Protein: Mannan endo-1,4-beta-mannosidase
Organism: Sphingomonas aurantiaca
Amino acid sequence: MLNRRETLGLTAALGLMQGIPALAAVPDRTLSNANATPTARKLYTYLWSQYGRKTLTGQQEQGSAPPNPRGELDYLQQVTGKLPAILGLDYIDPRDNDAVNDRATAWARSGGIVTLCWHWGAPDIGTGYENSKKDFDVAAALKPGTPQNIAMMRDMTEVARLLAVLKDRGVAVLWRPFHEFSGDWFWWGKHGPDAFKSLWALMYDQFTRVHRLGNLIWVLGWAGQNVDPAWYPGDATVDVAGADIYANDHGNLAAMFAQVKAIVGDTLPICLHENGPVPDPALLGPTADWLWFMTWHTRWLTGTDQNTADQLHRDYASKRYVTKDELPAWLKVKA
């Protein structure tokens, strides 16, 4: 059975034989995991149907500290009268992770789309954001049986358990692990592209083959300061490619979009996986066809140096941007 990359190569080759340019070949719009759940497949089909036409609105919640996970959603409802299509959550605090799953489930059952990241604290140090920026011996962790490997696999198994809960509830997840991997601030980006690609391959194998998590759509997120093809794990384990940068204006970030597209071409949709200022929807189009944006929480949403209430109201009313009320009813997960 051909994998996705082989299928794409064959499609392109057939296109050339028939006199069709390679870029005109129809991309393979199936998920990388052949055992994906029907819910994940339907969501992925919907995402492809929007790519190049519309951009889904997204908002990251602030989580449990301070304890107001509804803060961003309530603010958007107040200033725009609408809610984002995508809600971003984070497995950052083990004390809150079960509640994260409950909030994700409630969002999916109300008709929204869920995306999850993981600020993974260095496994041999501890959980939390600050620990995710501390170093971890990745080379040792990739050797079975080492203390680092045991700690890493322990953490990975626990997060797989959390994701399995969402699978059992019928929730498909835009899964965004190892985010901003091409930067040097998180431990998974401190040891270069080869170490990162080994981590990605290991998690992909564990989650798809060992833990049978067919509800995941795998989202790869470069740091915008370094969109380098050397870090790309390959089409066979990625479903959506993205990049982020916390720009100080509302431009379309076309240059960063072009850098990602130069790597993945037309084989994957491209998202703005984190942002501060929301891009001006009037500036989006072929040179910046972001599938979604994901505004970060607290001051990145509400700070007037990032997004004003009037600007957010205009953006959420734009025909380019898809809000939660505009999602198809069949995306709603049944209780």
